[in-house]
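Revision sheet: structure tokens.
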Amino acid sequence: MVSIWRGLVAGYLRLIEPIIAWCVRHRVSPNLITSVGTASACAVGVLFGLGWFSVGGWTLGILAFFDVVDGAVARRSGTATVFGSFYDATLDRVADGFLLGGFVVFYALHDVPRQAAMVLIALVALVATQLTSYTRSRAELIGVDMKGVGWMERPERITLLAAPQAFFGRSFDGWVVDAVVTILAVTAVVTVAQRIRHVLRATAVAIFPVIEEPGARPLTSHDEESPQ
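Predicted:
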């Protein structure tokens, strides 16, 4: 499964290579690309809230390259900055909020099957998704490597938000959309739990320090030598 996903990512990168090259050649600001991509994601969130899932899915799928192009352009053009990384991460949270918030609004305002349950599940997906990013940033801030920890990363999340909606919309009595939102909620909660456990294990020494007995003499280099 991992190899298939990596193959798809590699194919997608080859597909958008001309866009990246054009942006580098014309010195398009990576921060501008990030801003346009976030605005596009917010617009898709509004479409989801209105119930236009097929249109929103296709729009998100087509414009998802903004999420990749900004970083690639920054690296190739030598314009990568600390602020750019911060700006990109911040606007990613805004985009995720609008995308999943669109589902919350849809379920809250439309009379659909399983409405009450899906409002709750969509809220869980929204909150847990924000926590997946927060837990990673806080962990890395205290020096804990979080690479590869968790079920659901942002590329997989965007794919789930785009592809099923684009092809199925609210078909099958809404079961496809409901299943996507439920998968997003469950995987986000599991990812948060996995990251909390990972940080707990990585910081266990700090949480449970070795307590010396009162009056104990500090160890010296001679104490550490093995007996002859």
